[in-house]
Amino acid sequence: MVAGHSTMPVPQATAHWDARTWRNRLRLVSGLVLLPFVICHLTAHVFLLVSLDRARGLLFGVALLVPTVALSGYVTAGNQILRAGSNPDQVKLIFKRSDLTDQKRADIARIARLGSAGYVVLTPLPFVGRYVRGWLYRRRRPAMLSHSSGQILPVLPGATVLETLRGHGIPHASFAVEEAAAPPAEFW
Predict the structure, then answer these.
(1) Where does a domain end: 98, 122, 157?
(2) Given this model, what pLDDT does residue 65 score?
(3) CB 15 within 8 A of CB 86
């Protein structure tokens, strides 16, 4: 007799699985439980290394206790599912004992719709907020002109580059001739 078969009956649907399949599944579940534990433990260890030396022992005990309780819950739930799977009328019994009325079903459906709508609305909300904040920031802040001299100048709405440079007292070559200026010099 294999250990565990007397306390954990195997339903007919899974009776063909061999020991290797059960071991692989156990490894997978153990890995999925232990991976977050290791990540949290290492993170706590790095952050607590400097500041909370006294609390490290207590936190290490909690870090060992949480995965142990989680594994215990997984085993208990698995055993309960296996026991329930042996009864073909289990689903009917669950609905009969649940005292589920049409009003309760409607309430559950309404709550599910509200939750789904909240998810659909709240998920893109940070992205929309970030876009609006950037748009407002760009709208309020004038465009900036970076000159070769190293100066960064704000460009007023509707102003050209030449007007911006002249407004800040920086000379710039142009072909426009002002009335008070001398005629342009000839190149040849």
Answers:
(1) 98
(2) 83
(3) no
